[in-house]
């Protein structure tokens, strides 16, 4: 009998958890629409579901919807009656995301706000909205502003998660000085030092920043 070599860890894990037909359909939809194939990875999506569940948040704010893949994962962690608000620059992307969320059974629990997230966030603040969980996954230059706004819109104890904070190694490379890298360094420094936050950065995937807004004493 031929001896089998080791299986790559990612493949081992995905085989263990098996196919997720809802998420596979969303990925196929994103591909068919010719949208960028930059949704979070399956294991990352499972982590988002767990984080929302652990946070106990009833109101989730996502910045950067794309085709709804991470939206489905976030919504899966919500309690009954919980809602997700998702900010997306491009209307056609939000339409695809809405379709996928509806197919996943979350159509009634998501609101898409179309346009530049910076403006949408200012509007949410003016409306006095508050959220218990934030997932930041849009334009990288906006990250410091998104962190500011998350802090203003956060309930005490809210969780802030942000994707791609290592920018495939560029954030930690002193020779890189482009605007995304500079913005991401500022974001990470604030995540690490802001006294209102307990935080860490996981070097998994492309770097996942995680922070909890401290309850005021
Ligand atoms: N979170 C999605 C997922 O994993 O399924 C992927 C999001 S994708 C990496 C980034 C998204 O942010 C794109 O859909 C893009 O159109 C959107 N975006 C970029 N700049 C934005 C802005 N200024 N305001 C709102 N959305 C923006």
From TrEMBL:
Presence of the UniProt keyword Thylakoid in the record: no
InterPro entries: Cation-dep_OMT (IPR050362), SAM-dependent_MTases_sf (IPR029063), SAM_O-MeTrfase (IPR002935)
Gene3D superfamilies: Vaccinia Virus protein VP39
Source organism superkingdom: Bacteria
PROSITE patterns: SAM_OMT_I
Key words, A-Z: Methyltransferase, S-adenosyl-L-methionine, Transferase
Transmembrane segment boundaries: none
Keyword Thylakoid attached: no
Designated name of the protein: O-methyltransferase
């Amino acid at each position: 009998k031929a001896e089998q070599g080791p299986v790559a860890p990612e493949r081992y894990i995905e085989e263990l958890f098996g196919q997720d037909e809802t998420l596979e359909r969303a990925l196929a939809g994103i591909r068919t629409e010719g949208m960028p194939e930059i949704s979070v990875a399956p294991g990352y999506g499972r982590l988002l579901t767990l984080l929302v569940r652990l946070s106990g948040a009833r109101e989730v704010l996502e910045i950067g919807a794309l085709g709804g893949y991470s939206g489905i994962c976030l919504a899966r962690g919500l309690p009954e009656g919980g809602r997700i608000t998702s900010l997306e620059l491009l209307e056609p992307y939000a339409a695809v995301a809405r379709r996928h969320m509806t197919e996943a059974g979350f159509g009634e629990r998501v609101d898409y706000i179309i346009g530049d997230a910076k403006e949408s966030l200012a509007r949410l603040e003016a409306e006095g909205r508050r959220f218990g969980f934030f997932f930041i996954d849009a334009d990288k230059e906006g990250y410091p502003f998104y962190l500011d706004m998350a802090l203003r819109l956060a309930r005490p104890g809210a969780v802030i998660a942000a994707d791609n904070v290592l920018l495939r190694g560029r954030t930690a490379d002193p020779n890189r000085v482009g605007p995304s890298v500079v913005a991401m360094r500022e974001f990470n420094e604030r995540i690490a030092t802001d006294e209102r936050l307990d935080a860490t950065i996981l070097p998994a995937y492309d770097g996942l920043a995680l922070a909890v807004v401290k309850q005021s004493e």
